Amino acid sequence: MFLETLKKIFDTFGAQIFVPVIIFIVALGLRVNLKKAFFSALYAGIGLQGFTLLLNAFIPVIMPVVQRMVKSTGVKLPVFDIGWQATAVVAYSTKVGMIFLGLGILLQILLFVLRWTNVFQPGDLWNNYSYMVWGSMIYLTTKSMALAIACMIVLNLYSLLFSEMIAKRWSTYFNYPNCTIVQLHHVGTVPFGIAMNWILNKMGASRINLSPSDLQKKLGFLGEPISLGLILGIFLGIMGNLKRLGSLSSWGEIATVGISTAAIMAIFPKVSGIFAQAFLPLTEAAKKKGKEGGKSREWFLGVNDAAGYGEAATLISGITLIPIMVLMALILPGNKVLPLVDLIALPFMVQGLVAIMNGNIFKVLVSGTIWFSLGLYMATYTAPIFTQVATEVGVTIPSGVLMITSFGILTKPIAGLIFLAFLSKSWLLIGLVIAVYLVSYVLFKKKKEAIYTYMENANSIAA
Protein backbone atom coordinates (compact mmCIF):
# COMPACT_ATOMS: atom_id res chain seq x y z
CA MET A 1 0.00 0.00 0.00
CA PHE A 2 1.27 3.46 -0.96
CA LEU A 3 0.67 5.08 2.45
CA GLU A 4 2.42 2.28 4.32
CA THR A 5 5.40 2.63 1.97
CA LEU A 6 5.40 6.37 2.61
CA LYS A 7 5.42 5.75 6.36
CA LYS A 8 8.35 3.34 6.00
CA ILE A 9 10.26 6.01 4.09
CA PHE A 10 9.62 8.53 6.91
CA ASP A 11 10.70 5.96 9.50
CA THR A 12 13.87 5.13 7.56
CA PHE A 13 14.93 8.60 6.45
CA GLY A 14 14.56 11.21 9.19
CA ALA A 15 14.65 14.99 9.10
CA GLN A 16 18.44 14.89 8.70
CA ILE A 17 17.84 13.36 5.24
CA PHE A 18 14.62 15.05 4.14
CA VAL A 19 15.62 18.62 4.98
CA PRO A 20 18.94 18.51 3.05
CA VAL A 21 17.16 17.12 -0.02
CA ILE A 22 14.56 19.91 0.16
CA ILE A 23 17.26 22.57 0.66
CA PHE A 24 19.29 21.24 -2.27
CA ILE A 25 16.27 21.36 -4.60
CA VAL A 26 15.21 24.81 -3.40
CA ALA A 27 18.77 26.14 -3.73
CA LEU A 28 19.03 24.96 -7.32
CA GLY A 29 15.62 26.49 -7.99
CA LEU A 30 16.96 29.82 -6.71
CA ARG A 31 19.95 29.44 -9.06
CA VAL A 32 22.50 28.89 -6.30
CA ASN A 33 25.56 27.31 -7.90
CA LEU A 34 25.96 23.56 -7.51
CA LYS A 35 28.81 23.73 -4.98
CA LYS A 36 27.00 26.14 -2.64
CA ALA A 37 23.75 24.19 -3.00
CA PHE A 38 25.53 20.95 -2.10
CA PHE A 39 27.21 22.40 0.98
CA SER A 40 23.98 24.12 2.10
CA ALA A 41 22.27 20.74 2.05
CA LEU A 42 25.20 19.03 3.73
CA TYR A 43 25.41 21.64 6.53
CA ALA A 44 21.69 21.17 7.18
CA GLY A 45 22.07 17.39 7.43
CA ILE A 46 25.16 17.68 9.66
CA GLY A 47 23.40 20.18 11.93
CA LEU A 48 20.25 18.10 12.32
CA GLN A 49 22.26 14.93 12.91
CA GLY A 50 24.33 16.83 15.46
CA PHE A 51 21.16 17.88 17.30
CA THR A 52 19.96 14.28 17.25
CA LEU A 53 23.23 12.92 18.63
CA LEU A 54 23.30 15.54 21.40
CA LEU A 55 19.73 14.88 22.48
CA ASN A 56 20.12 11.11 22.26
CA ALA A 57 23.09 11.41 24.62
CA PHE A 58 21.54 13.98 26.98
CA ILE A 59 17.99 12.69 27.47
CA PRO A 60 18.96 9.20 28.78
CA VAL A 61 21.15 10.92 31.41
CA ILE A 62 18.47 13.27 32.67
CA MET A 63 15.37 11.09 32.23
CA PRO A 64 15.94 8.73 35.22
CA VAL A 65 16.40 11.74 37.51
CA VAL A 66 13.13 13.29 36.31
CA GLN A 67 11.24 10.01 36.72
CA ARG A 68 12.63 9.50 40.22
CA MET A 69 11.69 13.07 41.15
CA VAL A 70 8.08 12.46 40.10
CA LYS A 71 7.88 9.11 41.88
CA SER A 72 9.33 10.61 45.07
CA THR A 73 6.18 12.73 45.47
CA GLY A 74 4.29 9.56 46.32
CA VAL A 75 1.18 10.85 44.56
CA LYS A 76 -0.59 8.55 42.11
CA LEU A 77 -2.90 10.17 39.58
CA PRO A 78 -5.10 8.02 37.31
CA VAL A 79 -3.80 9.40 33.97
CA PHE A 80 -0.22 8.44 33.11
CA ASP A 81 1.96 10.38 30.63
CA ILE A 82 3.39 7.81 28.18
CA GLY A 83 5.33 10.38 26.12
CA TRP A 84 5.17 11.83 22.62
CA GLN A 85 7.03 8.89 21.04
CA ALA A 86 4.32 6.40 22.01
CA THR A 87 1.66 8.91 20.96
CA ALA A 88 3.26 9.16 17.51
CA VAL A 89 3.13 5.36 17.22
CA VAL A 90 -0.59 5.46 18.03
CA ALA A 91 -1.21 8.19 15.43
CA TYR A 92 0.65 6.30 12.70
CA SER A 93 -1.22 3.09 13.54
CA THR A 94 -4.77 4.29 12.84
CA LYS A 95 -6.55 4.22 9.49
CA VAL A 96 -7.52 7.89 9.59
CA GLY A 97 -3.97 8.81 10.55
CA MET A 98 -2.52 6.99 7.57
CA ILE A 99 -4.98 8.74 5.24
CA PHE A 100 -3.86 12.16 6.50
CA LEU A 101 -0.24 11.11 6.08
CA GLY A 102 -0.60 11.48 2.32
CA LEU A 103 -3.36 14.09 2.30
CA GLY A 104 -1.52 16.39 4.69
CA ILE A 105 1.63 16.51 2.55
CA LEU A 106 -0.39 17.40 -0.55
CA LEU A 107 -2.32 20.07 1.36
CA GLN A 108 0.82 21.65 2.82
CA ILE A 109 2.60 21.80 -0.54
CA LEU A 110 -0.50 23.18 -2.27
CA LEU A 111 -1.01 25.93 0.33
CA PHE A 112 2.61 27.01 -0.12
CA VAL A 113 2.55 26.92 -3.92
CA LEU A 114 -0.71 28.91 -4.00
CA ARG A 115 0.86 31.43 -1.56
CA TRP A 116 -1.85 30.87 1.02
CA THR A 117 1.07 30.60 3.42
CA ASN A 118 4.72 31.62 3.24
CA VAL A 119 5.76 28.66 5.40
CA PHE A 120 6.99 25.51 3.65
CA GLN A 121 5.78 22.98 6.20
CA PRO A 122 6.98 19.72 4.55
CA GLY A 123 10.48 20.50 5.88
CA ASP A 124 9.29 18.64 9.00
CA LEU A 125 6.94 15.91 7.83
CA TRP A 126 7.32 13.53 10.79
CA ASN A 127 5.45 15.82 13.18
CA ASN A 128 2.23 15.52 11.18
CA TYR A 129 1.33 12.86 13.75
CA SER A 130 0.14 15.71 15.97
CA TYR A 131 -2.85 16.26 13.65
CA MET A 132 -3.34 12.54 13.22
CA VAL A 133 -3.81 11.78 16.90
CA TRP A 134 -6.63 14.36 17.27
CA GLY A 135 -8.27 13.08 14.07
CA SER A 136 -8.03 9.49 15.31
CA MET A 137 -9.90 10.42 18.49
CA ILE A 138 -12.62 12.13 16.42
CA TYR A 139 -13.02 9.05 14.23
CA LEU A 140 -13.16 6.67 17.21
CA THR A 141 -15.88 8.70 18.89
CA THR A 142 -18.02 9.81 15.92
CA LYS A 143 -17.23 7.05 13.37
CA SER A 144 -17.19 9.84 10.77
CA MET A 145 -14.16 9.80 8.49
CA ALA A 146 -15.21 13.11 6.91
CA LEU A 147 -15.44 14.83 10.29
CA ALA A 148 -12.05 13.45 11.36
CA ILE A 149 -10.32 14.59 8.16
CA ALA A 150 -12.01 18.00 8.34
CA CYS A 151 -10.77 18.40 11.92
CA MET A 152 -7.18 17.59 10.92
CA ILE A 153 -7.30 20.01 7.99
CA VAL A 154 -8.60 22.83 10.18
CA LEU A 155 -5.92 22.08 12.80
CA ASN A 156 -3.31 22.22 10.02
CA LEU A 157 -4.64 25.59 8.81
CA TYR A 158 -4.47 27.03 12.33
CA SER A 159 -0.95 25.72 12.93
CA LEU A 160 0.28 27.18 9.62
CA LEU A 161 -1.21 30.55 10.56
CA PHE A 162 0.51 30.48 13.95
CA SER A 163 3.77 29.32 12.35
CA GLU A 164 3.73 32.25 9.96
CA MET A 165 2.90 34.65 12.81
CA ILE A 166 5.99 33.59 14.75
CA ALA A 167 8.23 32.85 11.76
CA LYS A 168 10.21 36.09 11.69
CA ARG A 169 10.56 36.28 15.49
CA TRP A 170 11.67 32.64 15.80
CA SER A 171 14.09 33.01 12.89
CA THR A 172 15.61 36.18 14.38
CA TYR A 173 15.83 34.94 17.96
CA PHE A 174 17.29 31.51 17.24
CA ASN A 175 19.43 32.90 14.41
CA TYR A 176 18.32 30.52 11.67
CA PRO A 177 17.69 32.59 8.53
CA ASN A 178 14.21 32.09 7.08
CA CYS A 179 13.34 29.13 9.29
CA THR A 180 10.53 28.52 11.74
CA ILE A 181 8.91 25.78 13.81
CA VAL A 182 5.72 24.29 12.37
CA GLN A 183 4.69 21.65 14.92
CA LEU A 184 1.04 21.95 16.02
CA HIS A 185 1.99 20.99 19.57
CA HIS A 186 4.43 23.95 19.80
CA VAL A 187 3.01 26.80 17.72
CA GLY A 188 -0.30 26.73 19.60
CA THR A 189 1.40 28.89 22.22
CA VAL A 190 1.76 31.80 19.74
CA PRO A 191 -1.49 33.78 20.30
CA PHE A 192 -1.33 33.06 24.05
CA GLY A 193 2.34 34.08 24.17
CA ILE A 194 1.72 37.37 22.35
CA ALA A 195 -1.17 38.21 24.70
CA MET A 196 0.77 37.18 27.84
CA ASN A 197 3.83 39.17 26.76
CA TRP A 198 1.65 42.29 26.41
CA ILE A 199 -0.01 41.69 29.80
CA LEU A 200 3.28 41.00 31.58
CA ASN A 201 4.89 44.08 30.03
CA LYS A 202 1.96 46.19 31.27
CA MET A 203 2.49 44.72 34.75
CA GLY A 204 6.17 45.69 34.67
CA ALA A 205 7.63 42.24 34.11
CA SER A 206 9.90 43.63 31.38
CA ARG A 207 11.88 45.29 34.18
CA ILE A 208 12.79 41.84 35.51
CA ASN A 209 15.70 41.11 33.21
CA LEU A 210 16.28 37.37 33.26
CA SER A 211 17.68 36.70 29.81
CA PRO A 212 20.94 34.72 29.56
CA SER A 213 22.87 37.90 28.69
CA ASP A 214 21.39 39.77 31.67
CA LEU A 215 22.22 36.88 34.01
CA GLN A 216 25.77 36.89 32.71
CA LYS A 217 26.14 40.60 33.52
CA LYS A 218 24.66 40.23 37.01
CA LEU A 219 26.31 36.97 38.06
CA GLY A 220 29.70 37.25 36.38
CA PHE A 221 31.26 33.88 35.57
CA LEU A 222 28.35 32.10 37.30
CA GLY A 223 26.06 33.68 34.73
CA GLU A 224 27.90 32.10 31.80
CA PRO A 225 25.65 29.60 29.96
CA ILE A 226 27.86 26.65 30.84
CA SER A 227 27.94 27.70 34.53
CA LEU A 228 24.16 28.08 34.55
CA GLY A 229 23.88 24.66 32.90
CA LEU A 230 26.04 23.13 35.61
CA ILE A 231 24.04 24.78 38.41
CA LEU A 232 20.69 23.88 36.86
CA GLY A 233 21.77 20.29 36.24
CA ILE A 234 23.01 19.87 39.80
CA PHE A 235 19.74 21.32 41.14
CA LEU A 236 17.69 18.90 39.03
CA GLY A 237 19.96 16.03 40.07
CA ILE A 238 19.42 16.84 43.75
CA MET A 239 15.65 17.08 43.24
CA GLY A 240 15.70 13.59 41.74
CA ASN A 241 17.83 12.16 44.54
CA LEU A 242 16.34 13.77 47.65
CA LYS A 243 15.58 10.41 49.24
CA ARG A 244 19.08 8.97 48.70
CA LEU A 245 21.51 11.83 49.19
CA GLY A 246 23.45 9.69 51.65
CA SER A 247 24.71 7.36 48.92
CA LEU A 248 27.82 7.98 46.86
CA SER A 249 26.09 6.82 43.66
CA SER A 250 23.48 9.56 43.97
CA TRP A 251 26.18 12.25 44.03
CA GLY A 252 27.79 10.62 41.02
CA GLU A 253 24.49 10.92 39.18
CA ILE A 254 24.01 14.53 40.37
CA ALA A 255 27.46 15.49 39.08
CA THR A 256 26.86 13.69 35.77
CA VAL A 257 23.56 15.52 35.21
CA GLY A 258 25.28 18.82 36.02
CA ILE A 259 28.16 18.27 33.59
CA SER A 260 25.80 16.92 30.91
CA THR A 261 23.59 20.02 31.09
CA ALA A 262 26.68 22.25 30.94
CA ALA A 263 27.89 20.25 27.94
CA ILE A 264 24.62 20.88 26.08
CA MET A 265 24.98 24.60 26.80
CA ALA A 266 28.54 24.58 25.45
CA ILE A 267 28.16 22.32 22.41
CA PHE A 268 24.67 23.21 21.18
CA PRO A 269 25.56 26.73 19.91
CA LYS A 270 28.41 25.28 17.84
CA VAL A 271 26.08 22.75 16.18
CA SER A 272 23.42 25.42 15.64
CA GLY A 273 26.08 27.56 13.95
CA ILE A 274 26.72 24.75 11.46
CA PHE A 275 22.98 24.34 10.88
CA ALA A 276 22.52 28.09 10.31
CA GLN A 277 25.17 28.06 7.57
CA ALA A 278 22.83 25.96 5.45
CA PHE A 279 20.40 28.84 4.95
CA LEU A 280 22.70 31.77 4.19
CA PRO A 281 23.09 31.02 0.43
CA LEU A 282 19.32 30.55 0.13
CA THR A 283 18.61 33.88 1.84
CA GLU A 284 21.10 35.71 -0.36
CA ALA A 285 19.75 34.09 -3.54
CA ALA A 286 16.14 34.83 -2.60
CA LYS A 287 16.95 38.51 -1.98
CA LYS A 288 18.84 38.74 -5.27
CA LYS A 289 16.01 37.10 -7.19
CA GLY A 290 13.51 39.44 -5.52
CA LYS A 291 15.45 42.50 -6.69
CA GLU A 292 15.65 41.13 -10.23
CA GLY A 293 11.99 40.18 -10.36
CA GLY A 294 10.61 43.33 -8.77
CA LYS A 295 8.36 41.72 -6.15
CA SER A 296 10.08 39.38 -3.70
CA ARG A 297 8.47 36.72 -1.55
CA GLU A 298 9.77 36.16 1.95
CA TRP A 299 9.24 32.53 2.86
CA PHE A 300 10.25 30.29 5.75
CA LEU A 301 11.27 26.65 5.89
CA GLY A 302 9.67 24.54 8.60
CA VAL A 303 12.44 22.86 10.60
CA ASN A 304 12.59 20.22 13.29
CA ASP A 305 12.03 21.50 16.83
CA ALA A 306 15.39 20.06 17.91
CA ALA A 307 16.95 23.16 16.34
CA GLY A 308 15.99 25.27 19.35
CA TYR A 309 16.20 22.78 22.25
CA GLY A 310 19.64 23.65 23.62
CA GLU A 311 19.51 27.45 23.27
CA ALA A 312 20.39 28.89 26.70
CA ALA A 313 17.07 30.55 27.67
CA THR A 314 15.09 27.67 26.15
CA LEU A 315 16.94 24.95 28.04
CA ILE A 316 16.97 26.90 31.32
CA SER A 317 13.24 27.71 31.07
CA GLY A 318 12.29 24.18 30.02
CA ILE A 319 14.27 22.40 32.74
CA THR A 320 13.13 24.86 35.43
CA LEU A 321 9.52 24.16 34.44
CA ILE A 322 9.96 20.42 35.12
CA PRO A 323 9.60 20.61 38.93
CA ILE A 324 7.10 23.47 38.59
CA MET A 325 4.75 21.39 36.43
CA VAL A 326 5.07 18.38 38.72
CA LEU A 327 3.97 20.63 41.59
CA MET A 328 1.10 22.10 39.52
CA ALA A 329 -0.10 18.60 38.63
CA LEU A 330 -0.26 17.74 42.32
CA ILE A 331 -2.07 20.87 43.54
CA LEU A 332 -4.46 21.77 40.69
CA PRO A 333 -8.02 20.80 41.71
CA GLY A 334 -9.61 18.39 39.25
CA ASN A 335 -6.39 17.49 37.44
CA LYS A 336 -5.92 13.75 36.92
CA VAL A 337 -2.72 13.78 34.80
CA LEU A 338 0.67 12.86 36.17
CA PRO A 339 3.26 14.28 33.74
CA LEU A 340 6.30 12.05 33.49
CA VAL A 341 7.87 10.91 30.20
CA ASP A 342 7.25 14.19 28.35
CA LEU A 343 8.62 16.44 31.10
CA ILE A 344 12.04 16.27 29.45
CA ALA A 345 10.39 17.66 26.29
CA LEU A 346 9.57 20.99 27.98
CA PRO A 347 12.54 22.77 26.30
CA PHE A 348 10.95 21.78 22.96
CA MET A 349 7.56 23.01 24.13
CA VAL A 350 8.58 26.53 25.28
CA GLN A 351 10.36 27.62 22.09
CA GLY A 352 7.48 29.79 20.93
CA LEU A 353 7.25 31.57 24.27
CA VAL A 354 11.02 32.06 24.44
CA ALA A 355 11.12 33.66 20.99
CA ILE A 356 8.12 35.91 21.63
CA MET A 357 9.51 37.03 25.00
CA ASN A 358 13.03 37.44 23.61
CA GLY A 359 14.59 35.03 26.07
CA ASN A 360 13.18 36.62 29.25
CA ILE A 361 13.19 33.53 31.45
CA PHE A 362 10.92 35.08 34.11
CA LYS A 363 8.14 35.83 31.61
CA VAL A 364 8.53 32.39 30.01
CA LEU A 365 8.20 30.65 33.38
CA VAL A 366 5.07 32.61 34.32
CA SER A 367 3.45 32.09 30.92
CA GLY A 368 4.55 28.47 30.66
CA THR A 369 3.13 27.60 34.08
CA ILE A 370 -0.27 29.02 33.13
CA TRP A 371 -0.31 27.51 29.62
CA PHE A 372 0.72 23.99 30.62
CA SER A 373 -1.57 24.06 33.66
CA LEU A 374 -4.53 24.75 31.36
CA GLY A 375 -3.21 21.93 29.23
CA LEU A 376 -3.36 19.48 32.12
CA TYR A 377 -7.13 19.97 32.23
CA MET A 378 -7.39 19.38 28.48
CA ALA A 379 -5.39 16.16 28.79
CA THR A 380 -7.55 15.10 31.74
CA TYR A 381 -10.68 15.49 29.62
CA THR A 382 -9.35 13.71 26.52
CA ALA A 383 -7.53 10.88 28.35
CA PRO A 384 -10.44 8.35 28.19
CA ILE A 385 -10.74 8.79 24.40
CA PHE A 386 -7.00 8.60 23.76
CA THR A 387 -6.70 5.54 26.02
CA GLN A 388 -9.37 3.75 23.97
CA VAL A 389 -7.63 4.65 20.67
CA ALA A 390 -4.26 3.44 22.02
CA THR A 391 -5.79 0.20 23.29
CA GLU A 392 -7.40 -0.52 19.91
CA VAL A 393 -4.04 -0.24 18.09
CA GLY A 394 -2.33 -2.53 20.59
CA VAL A 395 -0.60 -0.18 23.05
CA THR A 396 -0.05 -1.90 26.40
CA ILE A 397 -1.30 0.14 29.34
CA PRO A 398 1.27 0.17 32.20
CA SER A 399 0.33 -1.95 35.20
CA GLY A 400 -1.69 -0.04 37.78
CA VAL A 401 -2.54 2.75 35.34
CA LEU A 402 -6.18 3.54 34.51
CA MET A 403 -5.69 5.89 31.55
CA ILE A 404 -2.85 7.30 29.44
CA THR A 405 -2.06 10.58 27.68
CA SER A 406 0.86 12.61 26.35
CA PHE A 407 1.86 15.73 28.28
CA GLY A 408 3.75 16.95 25.21
CA ILE A 409 0.97 16.51 22.62
CA LEU A 410 -2.48 16.42 24.22
CA THR A 411 -2.14 19.36 26.64
CA LYS A 412 -2.75 22.00 23.97
CA PRO A 413 -5.71 24.26 24.84
CA ILE A 414 -6.30 25.74 21.37
CA ALA A 415 -5.95 22.43 19.50
CA GLY A 416 -8.14 20.86 22.19
CA LEU A 417 -10.90 23.44 21.76
CA ILE A 418 -10.92 22.88 17.98
CA PHE A 419 -11.07 19.12 18.62
CA LEU A 420 -14.00 19.56 21.03
CA ALA A 421 -15.91 21.64 18.46
CA PHE A 422 -15.65 18.80 15.91
CA LEU A 423 -16.32 16.18 18.59
CA SER A 424 -19.62 17.92 19.39
CA LYS A 425 -20.76 17.49 15.75
CA SER A 426 -22.39 20.89 16.17
CA TRP A 427 -22.27 22.76 12.87
CA LEU A 428 -22.60 25.99 14.83
CA LEU A 429 -19.43 25.34 16.82
CA ILE A 430 -17.55 23.97 13.80
CA GLY A 431 -18.63 26.99 11.76
CA LEU A 432 -17.47 29.27 14.57
CA VAL A 433 -14.01 27.62 14.60
CA ILE A 434 -13.71 28.06 10.83
CA ALA A 435 -14.98 31.65 11.01
CA VAL A 436 -12.44 32.55 13.70
CA TYR A 437 -9.68 31.11 11.52
CA LEU A 438 -10.76 33.04 8.41
CA VAL A 439 -11.06 36.33 10.29
CA SER A 440 -7.69 35.77 11.98
CA TYR A 441 -6.09 34.85 8.66
CA VAL A 442 -7.40 37.94 6.86
CA LEU A 443 -6.38 40.26 9.71
CA PHE A 444 -2.91 38.75 9.89
CA LYS A 445 -2.30 38.98 6.15
CA LYS A 446 -3.54 42.59 6.17
CA LYS A 447 -1.45 43.63 9.18
CA LYS A 448 1.45 41.18 8.83
CA GLU A 449 4.28 43.71 8.71
CA ALA A 450 2.81 45.67 11.61
CA ILE A 451 2.50 42.45 13.65
CA TYR A 452 6.09 41.46 12.83
CA THR A 453 7.33 44.92 13.83
CA TYR A 454 5.36 44.82 17.07
CA MET A 455 6.72 41.39 17.98
CA GLU A 456 10.27 42.54 17.30
CA ASN A 457 9.86 45.65 19.45
CA ALA A 458 7.48 44.41 22.16
CA ASN A 459 10.21 43.49 24.61
CA SER A 460 11.80 46.92 24.47
CA ILE A 461 8.56 48.77 25.17
CA ALA A 462 8.49 50.21 28.67
CA ALA A 463 5.65 49.04 30.83
UniProtKB/TrEMBL annotation:
Q: Which domain of life is it from?
A: Bacteria
Q: What topology does it adopt in the membrane?
A: Multi-pass membrane protein
Which PROSITE patterns does the UniProt entry name for this protein? PTS_EIIC_TYPE_2
Q: Where are the transmembrane segments?
A: 12-30, 42-66, 96-117, 137-161, 181-200, 220-242, 254-280, 312-332, 344-362, 368-389, 401-421, 427-444
Q: Which UniProt keywords apply?
A: Cell membrane, Membrane, Phosphotransferase system, Sugar transport, Transferase, Transmembrane, Transmembrane helix, Transport
GO BP, sorted A to Z: phosphoenolpyruvate-dependent sugar phosphotransferase system
Please name the InterPro entries in this protein's record: EIIC-GAT, PTS_EIIC_2, PTS_sugar-sp_permease
GO terms for MF:
galactitol transmembrane transporter activity; transferase activity
| Record-listed E.C. numbers | 2.7.1.69
Q: Which cell locations does it reside in? A: Cell membrane
A matching Pfam family: EIIC-GAT
Keyword Transferase on entry: yes
Recorded GO CC terms? plasma membrane
PANTHER family linked to this entry: PTS SYSTEM GALACTITOL-SPECIFIC EIIC COMPONENT
Name of the protein in question: PTS system, galactitol-specific IIC component
**What phylogenetic lineage does the species belong to?**
Bacteria, Bacillati, Bacillota, Bacilli, Bacillales
